[in-house]
Specification:
With 161 residues, the protein is mainly beta. It has a single domain, classed as Pnp Oxidase, Chain A (Roll). The strands form three sheets. It has a seven-stranded antiparallel sheet. The structure holds flavin mononucleotide. The site of flavin mononucleotide (FMN) has 17 residues, from β3, β5 and α2.
Length: 161
């Protein structure tokens, strides 16, 4: 039997990029959360997925809105990543970020490396998470910076700078 801790420690050896998943809540206000469960699913059509815990606010907001944005963070955006990993009531302090709007009205996190606007085309509940599949409808690429990484439960910069 694999324990939760054993599984978590093993997965921590898998280095990932870091994204901010953006949506609009039922008041039309931007909502954002940090996620590293993002990956591509297929090329034709262009589909990605993100796994969202049922304990998050984002889970219900995605189910209601049917859309999400993926914003790939770059090195230097660690504070923004940490900020959106907290519950909204704990998001205090002077973190510098701003949103603009994508073609479909989704919030784009300014200064991220890549933005993808996605329409939810399927979902699958498994255990305490839902896998949301999104067809990519818009891409904006900044072509600046290098990606922020997450490894062994910390931000990671292989160049050590
Ligand atoms: C690096 C990192 C990656 C994360 N990835 C995910 C993820 O893929 N899915 C998820 O549900 N939560 C993930 N989280 C946790 C959420 O960001 C956190 O629960 C957040 O408070 C949810 O915000 P919300 O309740 O406003 O939606 C991650 C946190 C960190 C620090």
């Amino acid at each position: 039997m694999v324990t939760k801790d054993e599984f978590r420690t093993a997965m921590a050896d898998f280095a990932t990029g870091v994204t901010i998943i953006t949506t609009n809540d039922d008041q039309g206000q931007p909502h954002a959360m940090t996620a590293n469960s993002f990956t591509s699913v297929c090329l034709e059509p262009p589909v990605v997925l993100v796994c969202v815990a049922h304990s998050t606010n984002t889970h219900q907001i995605l189910a209601d809105s049917g859309w999400f944005g993926v914003n790939i963070l770059r090195q230097g955006q660690e504070e923004v990543g940490a900020y959106f990993a907290r519950r909204p009531e704990d998001r205090t302090g002077g973190v510098d970020y701003s949103f603009s709007q994508g073609e479909d009205g989704l919030p784009i996190l300014d200064d991220s490396m890549v933005y993808m606007g996605c329409q939810i085309i399927g979902s699958h509940i498994y255990g305490d998470h839902t896998i949301y599949l999104g067809e990519v409808k818009e891409i904006r690429k900044a072509d600046v910076g290098t990606p922020l990484l997450f490894y062994k439960s910390r931000w990671y910069n292989p160049s050590g700078e």
